[in-house]
Amino acid sequence: MTATHISLADQRTMFIRWDDGHESRLSLNVVRDACPCAGCKGETLLMHSYDPVPSPDVPGKFDLLKAEPVGYYALQLTWGDGHSTGIYTWQTLRSLCSCPVCSGGISS
Asked: Which residue range forms the structural domain that includes residue 45?
């Protein structure tokens, strides 16, 4: 699955149209909280797990400034607080869609 169109629906919502015709509207708060980087999610290294260091919400944390493609498989997002190390795969972004079809409430 691949995104064919990405835009901001408003200041708090990302709109994604997928190559299968599905359309997702994702809350930027949900997208930011799902950041997959090691600093946000922790990491496992040599069979040792390291939890992320808790960080307070700061101004701009949920403000999306830039989205850049990473190859043909992901987006790297830059947030208003300067955070930009998360690489969101198409699969990760699609999994954040909470519409009735994606959440299993309606068959497609």
From this structure: 3-95
